[in-house]
Amino acid sequence: MGLFGKxxxxxxxxxxxxxxxxxxxxxxxxxxxxxxxxxAALTIxxxxxxxxxxxxxxxxxxxxxxxxIFVNKLTYGIRVPFSENWMVKFREPERGEIVVFKYPVDxxxxxxxxxxxxxxxxxxxxxxxxxxxxxxxERTVPESSEDFDxxxxxxxxxxxxxxxxxxxxxxxxxxxxQNSKGGFTNHSIMMRKNEMTSSxxxxxxxxxxxxxxxxxxxxxNSHDSRYWGFVPKKNILGKAGFVWLSCDxxxxxxxxxxxxxxxxxxxFGHTFKQ
Length: 274
Fold this sequence. Notes:
The protein has five helices and 18 strands. It has 274 residues and is mostly beta strands. It has two domains: 18-47, no CATH class; 51-267, Ribbon (Umud Fragment, subunit A). The strands form five sheets. A seven-stranded antiparallel sheet has the order 1-2-16-5-6-14-15. The protein is globular. 26% of the residues are buried.
């Protein structure tokens, strides 16, 4: 007997148990677990991070050939899956940021460069000097040679596929690039000593709406907006994050796998100025 009358019976329901065949399908080594793993990987690749390998020296000394980097795909917004349209837009790319994008001349090819100009900017390259909105971007002797110290002759061999090059032929600077918020990005660039005032790449451009002007940090060895034009913002895939693996040589015939004997161990987690 309870305090206020008869005790009431309370029915305790047993927790629902998955049908054994269903549970077996989605767990262990069965197809369902593989489907979940693939969906999780695709979601991460679409929404958060994607891995890329640096194939050329156009961003030396900031990024080395065979640096494996993660690209943050969430920096600028969230796209509709398998589309160039945005579900949510967070912000626009800034001057000085290193981004991965679809090459406008061949959309099946991915490029990585530094943003030099945003919509409305006037860009001028004259004999090795860079001007943004009529302001000469300051170039100074770097306080540290850390970026340049990573280089060796192998990073520079075969320039243009024609001959052997050498680190001794280059010098490096810190370039102070003003961003649209009034701050500055101090990043490393390098130039060939006998081409520092070269007229190659000279020109003036005004960046159209919804477009960007890109350049490599290896100024005499970068195929960029100076030669093929602007990058539509819709082509941007994400912002470069950090190096998670790096090596001097890849395994022959498997250009995405590092030769373990040539891994640059001290480059793990390396970040770059942007």
